[in-house]
Amino acid sequence: MLYYLSQFSDVFGPLNVFRFLTFRTAGAVITALFFVFLFGPSMIKSLKIKQGRGQPIREDGPIGHLLTKQGTPTMGGLMILGGFVSATLLWANLSNPYVWIVLLVTIGFGAIGFYDDYLKVSRSANKGFSGRYRLALEAVIAGIAVFFIAQLSEPAVSNSIFIPFIKDWAINLGWFFIAFGAFVIIAAGNGVNLTDGLDGLAIVPVMIAAACFGLIAYLVGNQVFSDYLLINFVPGTGELAVVCGALIGAGMGFLWFNAPPAHIFMGDTGSLSLGGALGAIAVATKHEIVLAIIGGLFVLETVSVIVQVVSFKLTGKRVFKMAPIHHHFEQIGWSESQIVIRFWIIAVVLALIGLSSLKLR
To answer: Which of 270, 264, 256 minimizes the C-alpha distance to 78?
Structure first.
């Protein structure tokens, strides 16, 4: 919205600053952060009153969670979504279709997560929305988003995926790209969802990934930089840097209240929407495989669950003491703070590896 003030820069020169992506990205970070700071306490208080006993805790989970996390309200993703959406609408160029596509995915996945959280809280049970129906809705939203992303991209790259670390190597998937892109978005949403099991564990890697993709979007959307780095140029995606800034700001605000001991959990409302947003941005910027590197922690958590389920069904034995894998480390004696901080370190290392693909070709 504020972007349009730049149109009056010939009348008042300083308004030209609203054209700059870097300025508006910083503005989105600050706006989202202060939105969560401003409305967070009242939102937590309201959710605590309405939810009573808070988020249901897994009875088969770590014993300590029944003692330390009982009564903590969930649906903190509403705080994140509020800050993210308000900052995006205020600072992004709203004539850019990529902005609206990412907003569609984020709000859509957030609505699915909200319904799931609502069912869990109202039933005081760990099971909410049917997994099949949930995945079906996610597939519809993601499929629509990828279809429009493919229409917006240049014909030469619209249905292609690019291999990191290798120059000028793309694989044209044709119409199968819609299924592939939808899978990336769904996998990202559910990967973050599985990672969200300890205070602060998911939100910091999400912010790290958002920062990386803010840079990627800025470079991919700029022909000079993309030509220099030998990466694909996708006109219009630079505006997604502002969207990533809004994600980072909202995430920082939420972390203030989610830091151990957490006053609120993000719930599926937050984890699904954040992962979906990252997936949509990765598809739009044609860096889907790089997302798997930068978001490798989410991949690890997801794979640990798949391995555990497959192993138990085929052999009757479990590979991990508990899945997702962060619970395995709890069971072998690591403290919550040790797991969270060490996983953050892993997320930083993976982010650096993923960013190195921009230059190493």
So the answer is: 270
Residue 360 burial by Cβ neighbours in a 10 Å radius (0-12, 13-18, 19+): exposed
Strand 160-162 with 170-172, pairing: antiparallel
Q: What are the average pLDDT values for consecutive 10-residue runs of the chain, which has 361 residues?
A: 82 87 97 96 90 63 56 90 97 96 97 92 73 92 96 84 83 92 97 92 97 97 92 93 98 94 91 97 96 96 95 91 91 92 96 91 69
Domain ranges of the chain: 2-156+174-285
- Angstrom distance (rounded) from CA 206 to CA 304: 19
> What would the DSSP string read from start to end of 131-186?
HHHHHHHHHHHHHHHHHHHHHHS-TTTTTEEE-TTSTT-EEE-TTHHHHHHHHHHH
Residues in the chain: 361
138 alpha-carbon distance from chain centroid: 14
pTM for this model (two decimals): 0.93
Residue 222's alpha-carbon distances to 219, 229, 352, in angstroms, are 5, 11, 21
Helical segments of the chain, H only: 21-51, 63-68, 77-91, 97-123, 131-152, 176-195, 203-220, 223-229, 240-258, 267-284, 288-294, 296-315, 325-331, 336-356
CB 138 within 8 A of CB 186: yes
DSSP state of 7: G
Q: Which amino acid is at 187?
A: A
